[in-house]
Write a structure and sequence with these properties.
The protein is of the alpha/beta class and 154 residues long. The chain has one domain. Helix content is 33%, strand content 18%. The protein is built from 5 helices and 8 strands; from the N terminus they run βαβαββαβββαβα. A 4-stranded parallel beta sheet has the order 2-1-5-8, sandwiched between helices. The chain has a two-stranded antiparallel sheet with strand order 3-4. Strands 6-7 form a two-stranded antiparallel ribbon. It is globular and about 50 Å long. The termini are close together.
Length: 154
């Protein structure tokens, strides 16, 4: 049975920068939880950042808060811990919160703190992809479920 790394905020954990969650109640995720497949993880908290915390956005290879504090090291540490967790559980699939400077897989915010988006990936997503983990976002759960089924057939 494939284990799946899932952003903790999508599971209702209050770990987002504003102290909130981004709970996802999609039937695919609910089923995976019931099957015991889900490994919950928040790379930002694992990297040493508190909750709540200042907003942060990618600015090239750096991650900066809205008050110009460089938090790149914490984001990198969290990404490494996510990779280590994925390796420990032989995880090949992750469902991560899109838009996050850690977890974004189709977009992140552009670093201007204006709400503008760019097609790019977060720090954790990039590292997991380098380690051959397929990353999906919360709007791609049907696609992720099909991919998991394909993995389990081989």
């Amino acid at each position: 049975m494939e284990k799946i790394l899932v952003s903790a905020c999508l599971l209702g954990e209050r770990v987002r920068y504003n102290g909130g969650a981004a709970t996802c109640d999609d039937p695919v995720l609910v089923r995976w939880l019931a099957e015991g497949r889900v490994v919950s993880f928040c790379p930002e908290v694992a990297g040493g950042l508190g909750t709540p915390r200042p907003r942060a956005e990618r600015q090239g290879l750096r991650v900066m808060t809205d008050s110009a504090v460089d938090v790149t090291t914490a984001f990198g540490r969290g990404a490494e811990r996510a990779r280590d967790t994925a390796r420990a559980h032989c995880i090949r699939v992750a469902i991560l919160k899109d838009g996050s400077p850690s977890c974004g897989s189709s977009y992140v915010y552009d670093g201007t703190f204006t709400g503008a988006r760019i097609a790019a990936v977060g720090v954790t997503t990039a590292l997991l992809q380098q380690d051959h983990v397929r990353v999906f976002n919360e709007s791609q759960l049907d696609e992720a479920a099909a991919y998991v089924m394909k993995l389990e057939e081989t």
